[in-house]
Amino acid sequence: MDFAKAAPKVFRALIGFDAAAREGLDPALVELIQIRASHLNHCAYCLHMHTNDARRAGESEDRLHMVAVWREAPHFFTPRERAALALTEAVTLVAGGGVPDDVYAEAAAHFDDGELAHVLALVLTINTWNRVALSTAKKAGTDTRA
Questions:
Q1: Could you read off the pLDDT of 100-112 as tens digits, one per residue?
Q2: CA within 20 to 30 Å of 91's CA: 1, 30, 35, 119, which one?
């Protein structure tokens, strides 16, 4: 199914939510969050799209390769990025035990309330996009955005 054609109002609403979530966030951080959630959700379509977006934005291959194992390679990421990645994991895997207080507190130590709300919104949007792509059998490498 072509979700955008089948439910154009819903698709446009998701685009708007995604755009609003990104506002004020560092583009590199946005891509790291989207890549990590896509790893966790096994969404090849979104992972391919966001690693390509990150490369176009100047992200290094080294960091892209380390996102999946960021805890084992913390020196590749800033404390702020690590806090966002931990929060991304907790929210993405929320059914496994909620968002631990220490993970939330660490994120809150690195982001003001407005930024933290945007990080959370971004995690919510990428999880939604992952589910749309997985549910509609989107194939990695078929992104047609300009």
A1: 999 999 999 999 9
A2: 1
* 46, 133 contact by CB (below 8 A): yes
Radius of gyration of the chain (CA): 15
How many other CB atoms are found less than 10 A from the CB of residue 116? 18
| Residue 137 C-alpha from the chain's centroid | 19
Sequence-distant contacts of 16-23: CB under 8 A, at least 24 apart: 17/121, 17/124, 17/125, 17/128, 18/122, 18/125, 18/129, 20/121, 21/118, 21/121, 21/122, 21/124, 21/125, 22/118, 22/122, 23/118
Residue range 67-79, pLDDT digits in tens: 999 999 999 999 9
Q: Which structure tokens are listed for 74?
A: 């913390």
Paired tokens of 41 = 């959700």
Write the single-letter amino acid at 63.
Answer: R
Identify the CA nearest to 35 among candidates 52, 22, 53, 51.
Answer: 51
Q: Structure pTM? A: 0.95
How many other C-beta atoms are found inside a 10 Å radius of the C-beta of residue 143? 15
